[in-house]
Design brief:
heterodimer; A: alpha/beta; 6-stranded mixed sheet; 25 helices; 29 strands; globular; B: alpha+beta; 4-stranded mixed sheet; two-stranded antiparallel sheet; 30% helix
Chain lengths: 849, 298
C-alpha cells in the first residue's frame, strides 16, 4: 500500500517476483493501476488519502473475527496496559482526542499516558514552549517509566481502559461498509484483504507490509504507518522472518541520510538536536531526551562518544564534552518553513545539494520566489538544474512577473561526482549498509560530497586560524584530520567510517554500542553504527555471495544496530523463548548454553537475558527490560499499539480527509487532521473543501507521482539521453470517462488548473485509471508524474506547481499525494494570460488572495 | 543436430561455441525498460526521441536501428471468453490455482490486464537477412548468432525487407543497418549480454539455447497448469517458419497481441521454388518465341 514498488524499486521487486514464484500472494492497494498492480495477484483501488480508513477496516475485521495473536500481543505489546481514565477518543469527541487546545492548534498529551504514570510529558512541555514541533516535541524516544514497567496492566486485556479494548472501540465504526464508502472500493475488497492477512499470520506464517511515499506524503502520513503498525502487531508480524513493515525510501540511500541525518532536527542515530531553552547542559539534555529505561537509557554514553568523535581531546568532562559547541534549534527549520522564511527575506544563503526544490517541492513557484530573495545560492548537482537557473528562465519570466536583472541572487554551480566515482555506503530499507568502491575518477571539476565538505571545512578553518573569538572554537576544535589521496586530494571515506564506528581509549575498534562509555573513554560518531568497522574490517564491504551462506546472508554488508538483519527479532520466539513454530524458527533461547541463539542473525536482545527475567523496581537502562519484552528501544520494551508519546496528532490513527477533498469526512465533524501544518498566505492558497462553497470549481482529485524511467525532479534523468527519450513529455493519466466528460483527446493536450498554477500536459487516456463511486458520487482522478521542468534534454511543466504547501506536523512532509484540481482540453495560455486563468479560477472558487 | 544452422557449427569447426540466445519470459516482465537502457549504454546507440506516443507507457515504439531492445506495453481488456464465464476472471483463475502459482495477471472484476514484453532480434535459425546480404556484412558467429559488421555494411538495405519481423533498419543520416548483436563483444569475453544482466526479474534469460528451451518448456507447463490457457512459447520450435529463433519468448497471449507476426517465415524459403517456376516459365516462353519466330518463317 502506498507503494509502486515495481516501478520505483524494480531491483528490489525481483524478490517479490521470486516470492510469488514460491507461492506468496501479492496484494496491491493503490489509487492507480500501476506496473506493480500488473504483477500483483490482486489490485484494489482506493481514493487517495483514505489508507487509514482501509487499514482501520482491517483492524476492525481482526477484532470482529477474533484474529488477534493473543500471546504475542499480551507479552510483546502494550495491549494489556491501562490508559489514564480521562483519555478521550476521537469517537467520543467528534474527531478530537482529549487535550485539544484550539488556541494553538495543538494537543496537550497528559491524558494520553499510561495510568498511574506521570512521565509522559517529560520530554514534551518545554520543547513545545520553545516553538519546536515535530517528532521531538513530545519526546520521540518515550517517557519515564519506573523500572520500565507500566504501573497498571491487565493481562486478560479485558479492562475497558486497556489499550486493546480502546483499540477495539476506536475502530468499531470502521466496518467494511463504512470503509468502502470512504475509500470508494467495495466492502468485499476490505474483507478480502483482511482475510488474506489473517489467514497468513500465525505461529506458522507471517505477512509483510510494504509502503513508500504514497503513505508518507500526506497530512496524515505518520498515522498511515501507525495504522500498519497496529495491524502488524495485532497479527504478530513484527520481528519475525517474513514479517515487518518495509519502508521503501524515495531514492537510494535516503535511509542512510536519515540514520546519519541531513535533517535539521536530529543528530546521528536519531538523537534529538538540542534546544536553547531546555537543554542548557548535557545532563539536562539527556534527562529530557533519554528515558531511564531501555536502550535509550544509555543516551549519555552515545552522546559523549559522539562529542568525543567530533571534538577529540578538547572534549572533556570539565567542559561537558563540548556539549555547548552543538548548534541549538530555536524553531521549525524544516524545508518548507525555511523556504517561507526565505521568501520573507530571513535567509541569506543556501547550499542546495542533491535537491531540486523548484521542481520537486510542492508549490514550485513559491520555491522560486523564495530562492530569488537569497544573496547567494550554491547548487551542487550533475547538471545546472532548474534550481540553479531559476533566475533567468523560470515560468515567472514568461508570465512577466519577474525580470532576470531584478534578481540579485548570486548562484554558484558546483558539479558533483556520481556514486560510481566515489567510495561510500548505501543504506537500504532494512538498514543494510553496502559499501561501493570508486570505479573511476570523476570527470573535470566534478567532486564528491565528502571532498566538497571536507575542503570547505579545511578552508574555513584556515581562514579562522588564530582567531581568539570563542564563537569560532567549535570549528577550530573539530577533529578535521582526514587523510587525503589521489589527484584531487579526495578524503579517505573509510577513515570517516572508522570514526563513525568508534574506538576505545587504546585506539582499538569497538564491536557494539554496548561498549560505549559516558566518561569520555570511547569515541563513536553514530551509536547505531557502532561496530561497522569492528576488528579493523569494513564490515559493510563484505560481499560473500548468498550462494555461499544460508538465507540470512549475514556476511553480506552490515546492518545497524549490531549487524541485526531483522530488528526486534526476540519476537520470533514466544514468551518462554521457544520458536513459535519450526517453520518460523529464527531467534530462540538456548537453555543449555544460557543464551539467545539464532539461525545466523544477531539476536537483537541482551545475549544472556533469560526469558523469565523480571526487572527490579528501580531497574534502569537495559536492566529494566524484562526477558519477554523485545522492543528494547521503548522504555517498556513493548511494541506500541497505542503511542502514549511521540506523536503530535494522537495516540491512534483516525481517518481525516486530505487538506483538499471533494468529500466531507463521513466519520467525524472534524474534516482534516486538526494538527496539520497550514500556511495561509497569498502565495499558497488552499481550495474550498468538502461541501464548502466553491469546492466544486476544483472537482477532481489530483495525485502526483513518478515513473520508472525518470529520477525524482529529473536532474539525473531528463539530462540523460537514454532515459529522457523513454518519457519525453509531461503527461497526465485520465480515465476514458473523464476524457469523455471533459472532451480530452488521447495524445492531445490538457491544462490542469489549481489556485496555485495552471500547467499543460499531454493526455494519456487509459483504463488503468478508473472513476470511483464515493458517497454516492463519481470521483475522477487526474494522475500527474512530476519529473519535468524547464531545462534538460526533455522539458515540460512541472506537476508540483499545482500543489499547496500543507504538512504533516509530525515530520513536516508535504501532501503531494492528493489535492483537488480542474482539467480542460488544450494547451495553457501563455504569458500574462496564464496568471489570468488561475485568477479566474480563484475568483470562481472564492479563494482569498 | 538440433539448433543447427546453415553455417553453424559446420563452418567453425573446432572454433565453434555452443549456440546461445535469449529466453524472454514475459510473464515476469515488469516493464522497467532496464534492458533498453543497458543495451543502448553498452552498444553506444544514439538517442532517438520520438516524443509522447500515447501507446501506454511506451515511447520507443518498436525495434529499429536505434532501439535493439524494445518493451511493449499492452493494456488489454478481459477477453470475451472470460467475460462469458461470469465476467470474473479472478474467480476463474482461483479455480485454476493461478494465484497459488503466482502467475495470475488479471485483476478482480475490472477485466483488465497489462502485459509487458521485451522484444529483440530473433537471431533466426534460417536468417533471410544474412542470405540476402551482398557484402557479407551480416554473418553467423561462432555462437550461432547473427551480427552486422558495421565496417563492412554498405547500406544497400536488402536485408531490411528480408526480415520477417521488421527488426533490420537503416540508421537515418548513416544509411547502414544496425541491430542487436547479442552483445557479440561481451560473449567473446564470457560476459552475458547487457540486457540480460540488467534485467532485475530475470525476465530476460541468457544461455545455451538447448538448455533455455528446456527451461521454457517447464515454465510453460507450470503456467498452463495454473490455468493460463493462452500462454505459449514463440519461436521455440525447429519446425516453424524460421527454424526457431535464437531469441524466443514465453507469451501470455497470441503473438499478434504483442505486435509480433503470428506465423513468421524465412522470406527466402520459397526462393528456390520461385526460381524453378521462373525457369520453367522462361523455357516455355523461349519455346513459344522460337516457335513464333521459326514457325513464322515456315
Amino acid at each position: 500500500m502506498g507503494s509502486n514498488m515495481a516501478e520505483q524499486h524494480p531491483v528490489g521487486f525481483q524478490w517479490v517476483v521470486e516470492a510469488k514464484e514460491r507461492g506468496a500472494k501479492v496484494i496491491h492497494v493503490d489509487p492507480r493501476f500501476t506496473r506493480t498492480s500488473a504483477m500483483a495477484d490482486r489490485h484494489i483501488q482506493i481514493r487517495p488519502g483514505t489508507d487509514i480508513a482501509f487499514l482501520g477496516g482491517v483492524v476492525n475485521h481482526i477484532f470482529e473475527h477474533d484474529a488477534v495473536f493473543e500471546e504475542y500481543v499480551r507479552h510483546f505489546t502494550n495491549g494489556p496496559v491501562i490508559i489514564k481514565k480521562d483519555f478521550r477518543d476521537t469517537e467520543d469527541a467528534s474527531g478530537f482526542f482529549s487535550g485539544w487546545n484550539p488556541g494553538d492548534s495543538a494537543y496537550g498529551i497528559d491524558t494520553w499516558g499510561y495510568n498511574k504514570s506521570t512521565g509522559e510529558a517529560t520530554a514534551g512541555k518545554s520543547e513545545q514552549q520553545a516553538d519546536v514541533s515535530g517528532e521531538q516535541s513530545h519526546g520521540a524516544h518515550g517517557m519515564e517509566l519506573t523500572g520500565g514497567d507500566p504501573a497498571d496492566v491487565d493481562n486478560s486485556m479485558q479492562d475497558e481502559h486497556c489499550v486493546l479494548q480502546i483499540l477495539r472501540r476506536h475502530f468499531s465504526r470502521y466496518t467494511p461498509e463504512t470503509v468502502a464508502e470512504i475509500c470508494g472500493c467495495s466492502p468485499d475488497d476490505v474483507v478480502a484483504v483482511a482475510q488474506a492477512l489473517c489467514e497468513n499470520s500465525s505461529r506458522e506464517r507471517t505477512s509483510a507490509v510494504v509502503y513508500s511515499v504514497g503513505w508518507t506524503q500526506h497530512t496524515i502520513g505518520v498515522q498511515n504507518i501507525r495504522a500498519a503498525s497496529i495491524v502488524q502487531l495485532l497479527l504478530g508480524n513484527i520481528g519475525r522472518p517474513g514479517g515487518g513493515i518495509l519502508a521503501l525510501r524515495g531514492h537510494a540511500n535516503i535511509q542512510g541520510s536519515t540514520d546519519i541525518p541531513t535533517l535539521y532536527n536530529i543528530l546521528p542515530g536519531y538523537i534529538p538536536m538540542p534546544h536553547p531553552q531546555s537543554h542548557p547542559t548535557l545532563d539536562k539534555f539527556v534527562k529530557l531526551n533519554g528515558p531511564d529505561t531501555g536502550a535509550w537509557g544509555n543516551l549519555k554514553p552515545y552522546m559523549v562518544s559522539m562529542l568525543k568523535a567530533w571534538w577529540g581531546d578538547v572534549a572533556t568532562e570539565d567542559n561537558d564534552f563540548c556539549f555547548d559547541y552543538l548548534p541549538r534549534i530555536n524553531g521549525d527549520h524544516s524545508h518548507y518553513a525555511m523556504m517561507l522564511k526565505m521568501l520573507d527575506g530571513g535567509v541569506r544563503g543556501m547550499f542546495c545539494v542533491g535537491q531540486n526544490p523548484t521542481v520537486g517541492s510542492a508549490n514550485s513557484k513559491l520555491m522560486r520566489l523564495a530562492l530569488a530573495k537569497l544573496d547567494w545560492l550554491v547548487v551542487r548537482d550533475f547538471q545546472p538544474i532548474e534550481s540553479a537557473t531559476f533566475w533567468k528562465d523560470s515560468p515567472e519570466h514568461e508570465s512577466g512577473e519577474v525580470r532576470a536583472q531584478d534578481i540579485q541572487t548570486e548562484v554558484f554551480f558546483l558539479p558533483c561526482a556520481a556514486h560510481t566515482e566515489k567510495d561510500g555506503n548505501f543504506t537500504n530499507t532494512q538498514r543494510l549498509l553496502q559499501w561501493h568502491h570508486k570505479a573511476c575518477e570523476p570527470p573535470g571539476d566534478c567532486r564528491s560530497e565528502l571532498h566538497w565538505i571536507y575542503h570547505l571545512g579545511r578552508r574555513i578553518r584556515e581562514k579562522l586560524a588564530g582567531s581568539q573569538d570563542p564563537k569560532n572554537r567549535p570549528i577550530l576544535d573539530l577533529t578535521w584530520d582526514y587523510p587525503v589521496r589521489g589527484p584531487h586530494d579526495e578524503p579517505d571515506a573509510e577513515h570517516v567510517l572508522q570514526e563513525i564506528s568508534g574506538r576505545s581509549s587504546d585506539g582499538s575498534f569497538l564491536a557494539s554500542y554496548d561498549e560505549l562509555e559516558e566518561d569520555g573513554s570511547t569515541t563513536c560518531g553514530s551509536w547505531i553504527h557502532c561496530g561497522i568497522y569492528k576488528e579493523g574490517v569494513n564490515q559493510s564491504a563484505r560481499k560473500r555471495p548468498g550462494t555461499e551462506q544460508n538465507w540470512i546472508a549475514h556476511e553480506w554488508g552490515w546492518a545497524w544496530p549490531k549487524d541485526t538483519r531483522i530488528i526486534y527479532n526476540r519476537c520470533s520466539a514466544d514468551a518462554d523463548g521457544q520458536p513459535w513454530s519450526e517453520r518460523k524458527r529464527y531467534v530462540w533461547w538456548d537453555e543449555k548454553e544460557g543464551k539467545w541463539t539464532s539461525l545466523g542473525d544477531s539476536p537483537d536482545f541482551p545475549p544472556d537475558k533469560e526469558p523469565d527475567y523480571r526487572p527490579g523496581r528501580n531497574a534502569k537502562k537495559m536492566e529494566a527490560i524484562a526477558g519477554d519484552k523485545p522492543f528494547i528501544l521503548h522504555p517498556d520494551g513493548r511494541g506500541w499499539l497505542y503511542a502514549p508519546t511521540g506523536l503530535v496528532d494522537g495516540p491512534l490513527p483516525a481517518h481525516y480527509e486530505p487538506q483538499e477533498s471533494p468529500f466531507k469526512n463521513p466519520l467525524y465533524a472534524q474534516q482534516q487532521n486538526p494538527t496539520r501544518q497550514v500556511f495561509h498566505r497569498p502565495e499558497n492558497p488552499y481550495h474550498p473543501t468538502g461541501d464548502e462553497q466553491g469546492a466544486d470549481v476544483f472537482p477532481f482529485v489530483l495525485t502526483t507521482y513518478r515513473l520508472t524511467e525518470h529520477h525524482t525532479a529529473g536532474g539525473m534523468s531528463r539530462t540523460v539521453p537514454y532515459l529522457a527519450e523513454l518519457q519525453p513529455e509531461f503527461f497526465v493519466e485520465v480515465s476514458p470517462e473523464l476524457a469523455a466528460e471533459r472532451e480530452l483527446e488521447h495524445g492531445g493536450w490538457a491544462t490542469v488548473i489549481t489556485a496555485r498554477q495552471a500547467v499543460e500536459a499531454r493526455v494519456l487516456v487509459t483504463a488503468r485509471i478508473r472513476p470511483l463511486e464515493v458517497q454516492g458520487r463519481r470521483m475522477h482522478l487526474v494522475g500527474a508524474p512530476y519529473h519535468w521542468g524547464g531545462v534538460g534534454i526533455v522539458t515540460g511543466d512541472s506537476a508540483n506547481e499545482l500543489l499547496p504547501v500543507v504538512l504533516d506536523n509530525n515530520v513536516h512532509i508535504s501532501e503531494y499525494k492528493v489535492a483537488t484540481c480542474d482539467i480542460r482540453p488544450g494547451r495553457r495560455p501563455r504569458g500574462r494570460a496564464r496568471l489570468d486563468l488561475v485568477q479566474t479560477y480563484r475568483q470562481r472558487a472564492g479563494v482569498k488572495d | 543436430m538440433s539448433l543447427q544452422t546453415h553455417a553453424w557449427p559446420s563452418t567453425y569447426g573446432a572454433e565453434s561455441r555452443p549456440r546461445v540466445g535469449f529466453f524472454t519470459d514475459t510473464s515476469i516482465c515488469i516493464g522497467c525498460k532496464a534492458c533498453e537502457v543497458a543495451c543502448k549504454e553498452w552498444n553506444q546507440i544514439p538517442m532517438s526521441i520520438q516524443g509522447f506516443t500515447g501507446k501506454s507507457l511506451d515511447n520507443t515504439v518498436d525495434l529499429g536501428a536505434n532501439t535493439w531492445r524494445h518493451v511493449a506495453f499492452v493494456e488489454q481488456s478481459l477477453p470475451a471468453d472470460a467475460r462469458d464465464n461470469g465476467g470474473d476472471l479472478v474467480r476463474a483463475a482461483q479455480a485454476g490455482a493461478a494465484i497459488d502459482a503466482g502467475v495470475q495477471t488479471y485483476q478482480e472484476g475490472d477485466g483488465f490486464r497489462w502485459l509487458m514484453a521485451s522484444d529483440v532480434c530473433k537471431h533466426c535459425t534460417h536468417a533471410a537477412c544474412l542470405d540476402v546480404c551482398p557484402t557479407g556484412a551480416l554473418f553467423r558467429t561462432e555462437f550461432g548468432t547473427v551480427v552486422v559488421q558495421e565496417d563492412v555494411c554498405n547500406g544497400c538495405g536488402y536485408c531490411v525487407p528480408a526480415c520477417p519481423f521488421g527488426v533490420l533498419d537503416q540508421r537515418e543520416g548513416d544509411g547502414r543497418v544496425w541491430k542487436c548483436t547479442l552483445c557479440y563483444d561481451r560473449l567473446k569475453d564470457d560476459q552475458e549480454p547487457a540486457c540480460a544482466q540488467a534485467c532485475p526479474t530475470n525476465s530476460i534469460q541468457f544461455g545455451e539455447l538447448g538448455e533455455l528451451r528446456e527451461r521454457a518448456e517447464h515454465r510453460l507447463a507450470k503456467l498452463q497448469d495454473a490455468g493460463q490457457d493462452k500462454a505459449q512459447l514463440y519461436l521455440a520450435d525447429d519446425e516453424d517458419g524460421i527454424g526457431g529463433g535464437g531469441a524466443f519468448f514465453l507469451l501470455l497471449d497470441d503473438p499478434e497481441v504483442y505486435g509480433l507476426p503470428p506465423d513468421p517465415v524465412d522470406t527466402r524459403r520459397d526462393v528456390g521454388e520461385i526460381w524453378a517456376a521462373a525457369g520453367v516459365a522462361a523455357v516455355a516462353l523461349g519455346g513459344a518465341i522460337a516457335a513464333a519466330v521459326f514457325g513464322g518463317r515456315r
